[in-house]
Amino acid sequence: MFNVLGGALMLPLVYLGVYNHLVELISPVALRAETIGVHIAIAHSAFNVVAAFMVLPFVGLLERLVLKILPTRRGQIEQAPATGDSAPREDPPDESSPPPSES
Fold it and tell me: pLDDT digits over 42-60, tens only?
């Protein structure tokens, strides 16, 4: 889903030539037959970084979409996402260890 959404958001940048200019700007070598691998690696990394920043505001929407597409299976326990809103719970004391002594 990330790549599909990222690709859709990157299409205008590729079409306008902004993405190509970005790759040329970042690349330490000129584009030649011998350096095409470097440009491919830079283009791939730049796509992932730029797409991650572009998709970041849509994380909630992406989560709902994925949960709708991939429903829970029968017998599978449905877990709520960890939001960090609740206070941390303390683990109960271990019954096998003696209580700490006061000195």
Answer: 888 988 888 888 888 888 8
